[in-house]
Specification:
- By secondary structure, the chain is mainly α.
- About 90% of the residues lie in helices and about 0% in strands.
- The chain is built from 4 helices and no strands.
- Helix 1 packs antiparallel against helix 2.
- It starts with a helix and ends with a helix.
Length: about 240
């Protein structure tokens, strides 16, 4: 009767083990797909879009949740295999069949395969996360350096432009100063010429003979100019007539 009870317990444990194995298999398939699609969120640290960051956060949460669930299922399957081993050992001591030992070994092999696959997938995803976190940190540092360099470049351009404006203002001030000095010089010369003219007029009014002398001088200058012009014109006409004949 005890052997029958042990056999029934073993059968129930085998049923639970198969259920857990099926559930673990489904979880591992989803976990493997998560590891495959995890690379789609690798650009979360280097763009201005907030969607990759949200996807990466949700993916991390899903990874942690699924990893915890699979670990719990593996722990339950390990516990059931241990109980199954105890009952199989009892049946073996009472002359039980070796088929139970073979079945137990097959469940242990399945558990070992599932554990190995889980640890491998978990290690790959963890390594990928660490690598992408490092690359994301480097990318953010590069972006920050680019932004700082761009800001410094714009600041430098603004300073150069400001320096050009100040130089232009200085040159304009110098040109205005030169124009003002020229204006003052011309005004002073005009005043000097007016003074000379006034003095000459005063002398002319005071000494009429000087005025008549100046008029005669001017008349002779005009006469000499006329005579010189006539002579030059006659010479040109003669040269033209000689040239054409």
């Amino acid at each position: 009767m005890a052997d029958f009870g042990n056999q029934w317990e073993v059968t129930d444990l085998r049923k639970q083990a198969r259920q857990l194995e099926n559930e673990i298999d489904l979880k591992l398939v989803s976990f493997s797909k998560l590891g495959t699609s995890y690379s789609s969120y690798k650009d979360y640290g280097g763009t201005n879009d907030t969607s990759p960051l949200l996807n990466k956060t949700s993916s991390d949460h899903m990874f942690e949740t699924m990893a915890m669930q699979i670990e719990q299922l593996l722990a339950k399957l390990t516990e059931i295999n241990d109980h199954m081993a105890d009952y199989t050992q009892k049946l073996g001591m009472n002359g039980g069949s070796s088929a139970l030992i073979h079945t137990l070994q097959r469940h242990r092999d399945i558990l070992q395969d599932y554990s190995h696959e889980f640890q491998k997938t978990k290690a790959n995803i963890t390594a990928f996360k660490e690598r992408e976190d490092l690359l994301g940190s480097v990318r953010r540092d590069i972006d920050a350096y680019k932004n700082a360099s761009g800001l410094n470049r714009r600041t430098e351009l603004y300073l150069k432009e400001n320096e050009h404006v100040r130089n232009s203002d200085r040159l304009l001030d110098e040109q205005i100063g030169v124009a003002m000095a020229t204006k003052e010089n011309l005004l002073s010369q005009r005043g000097m010429f007016n003074s000379i003219t006034q003095r000459v007029n005063a002398l002319s009014n005071r000494y009429p003979q000087i005025n008549s002398l100046i008029q005669r001088i001017n008349f002779r200058k005009r006469r000499d100019s006329i005579i010189l012009g006539l002579v030059i014109s006659i010479c040109m006409i003669l040269l033209l007539l000689y040239a054409f004949h």
